[in-house]
Task: inverse folding
């Protein structure tokens, strides 16, 4: 199978200078390394072009308009030549064999993707239902390969054809947050498997461009997308009823939550239905993570 490594970037010149050459050197399995630049204004593209002289496998997709993480990633995956695509944020620094240690899992054609172990924060994603919402927390059984509710859009390797089959990251969550949780849930519901591999180690330096946004905007989008995850993915009538009760009390305790509900409705009205091929029920998915 051919492998592409995809590094998404937006005004991350300093991060590219820190990490990109290491990514190239520690990805010998890759047939190509792609930097997908989302209309940066900090000379990121000039840096990549200079580095291309040294590394011919390095490619640049340079956007002239900023579309956000999900759209940028989807477009770059579609252009990638690999059967498997490594998804990296520009603030991720890989360790040796980070790709090699995942490849055995793709012998199983049902595996959608494999998440990497972030050094110092080694955990997979466990999901469950509580208080009227889809909840998640770090898994604690980290010494062995484990199923994961999702694989990070900036720290994982995915099967390109399945990513495309499910439509990739859903634009309804733009500009950011929850795209990978949503995609992971749709993959599980469609009968695919997502894994977390403790031997595939990367360092996440948490210097992403998200810090350039105000806390109020980040909290607003996070709450809206949390509700979107329920309304877009949960089909169990009992769980949806519990969500309505939870919304009632959220509005009573904080009237501003009405804005979140209205924003969520607006996003849904202006978006296409989620792409999913149902095989597992919500309860069956939650049961997988209760063991």
Result:
């Amino acid at each position: 199978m051919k492998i592409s490594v995809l590094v998404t970037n937006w005004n991350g010149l300093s991060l590219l200078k820190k990490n990109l050459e290491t990514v190239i050197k520690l990805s010998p399995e890759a047939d190509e390394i792609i930097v997908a630049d989302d209309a940066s204004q900090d000379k990121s593209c000039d840096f990549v072009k200079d580095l291309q002289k040294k590394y011919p496998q390095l490619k640049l997709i340079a956007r002239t308009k900023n579309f956000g993480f999900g759209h940028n990633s989807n477009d770059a995956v579609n252009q990638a030549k690999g059967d498997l695509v490594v998804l990296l944020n520009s603030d991720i620094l890989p360790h040796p064999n980070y790709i090699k240690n995942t490849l055995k899992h793709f012998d199983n054609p049902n595996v959608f993707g494999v998440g990497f172990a972030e050094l110092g924060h080694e955990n997979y994603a466990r999901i469950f239902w509580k208080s009227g919402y889809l909840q998640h927390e770090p898994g604690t059984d980290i010494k062995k390969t484990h199923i994961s509710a999702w694989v990070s859009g900036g720290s994982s390797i995915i099967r390109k054809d399945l990513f495309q089959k499910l439509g990739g990251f859903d634009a309804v969550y733009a500009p950011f947050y929850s795209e990978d949780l949503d995609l992971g849930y749709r993959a599980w519901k469609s009968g695919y498997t997502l894994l977390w591999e403790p031997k595939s180690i990367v360092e996440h330096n948490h210097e992403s461009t998200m810090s350039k946004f105000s806390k109020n905007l980040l909290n607003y989008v996070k709450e809206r997308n949390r509700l979107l995850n329920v309304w877009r993915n949960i089909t169990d009538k009992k769980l949806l009823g519990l969500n309505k009760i939870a919304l009632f009390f959220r509005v009573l305790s904080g009237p501003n939550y009405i804005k979140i509900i209205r924003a969520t409705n607006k996003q849904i009205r202006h978006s296409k239905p989620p792409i999913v091929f149902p095989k597992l029920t919500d309860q069956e998915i939650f049961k997988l993570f209760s063991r």
